[in-house]
Amino acid sequence: MFNAFIFYKFINGDDMKTIKIALTSMFLVLSSYASAVEISGNVGLSSDYIWRGMTQTSGDIAVSGGFDLSTDMGFYLGTWASNASAGTASMELDVYLGFSGEMAENMTYNVGYISVIYPGNDALDFEEAYVGFDIYGLSILYSDGQNNGPSYSEIGYSTEAGPGSFSISHGSYEDTGDNTLVGYDWGVGDFTIGFYYYDFEADTAGSMSDDDGAYVSIGRSF
Q1: Whose CA is closest to 185, among 169, 162, 155?
Q2: Domains (range + CATH), the chain
Q3: Which of 213, 171, 155, 166 is nearest to 194 (CA)?
């Protein structure tokens, strides 16, 4: 299916539909003025699908992949899917759009909207508006859950280390729990191999339980 402190919130479903239509229209209009449009894809295999510190495949192997369309003006539109274990749903499908760019050297931003869909279990579907910054390896993310959904905030840091890169992050998911992720990504030829350790601490008032563990992944972008 992992960057600010503040974002706007839409009060009802009509507002949510309006912003999605507006963003989509803006993307199509501006992309027509762009001198270059790029299509990219990705595939991945992981020993577990961990999202915000919680397994999405009950500890089983996850197979994922997606496609992105982006313009040289910074606008993007994409989709990503993975197998999942969510009630009667066996798949997660993400659709997102937004724009990103560089504010200054080694300082970037990313603003967008994502819809997470579980075919076969509509009750689990949710949407978020997000905004993030990356400043010299320091990342800050805020995702605002739509329709009174929970918000998520995260801060992290990544740096080059040996043949790969080291990263660490800590996030807080409203009414759910906190999570910490430590990882190392190593590029081998056209592939990226990742080694990760996660720790999840559930809110005492929630239905989740504490969990921690390690997983590995291999992926390729094209």
Answers
A1: 162
A2: 13-221 (2.40.160.40)
A3: 166
User: What are the structure tokens assigned to 157, written together?
Assistant: 């840091």
Question: Coil, strand or helix: which one is 145?
Answer: strand
CA neighbor of 196 nearest in space, from 180, 177, 173:
180
Tell me the two tokens of residue 66: 């997606």
| Per-residue tokens: 81 | 């899917």
Cβ neighbors of 95 (< 8 A, separation 6 or more) are 78, 79, 114, 115, 117
Contact 117, 110 (CB under 8 A): no
- Find residue 41's DSSP bridge partners: 67
pLDDT at 118 over 90: yes
| Total Cβ atoms within 10 A of residue 74 | 17
* pLDDT tens, position by position, 66-86: 999 999 999 999 999 999 998
Distance in angstroms (rounded) separating the CA atoms of residues 169 and 157: 6
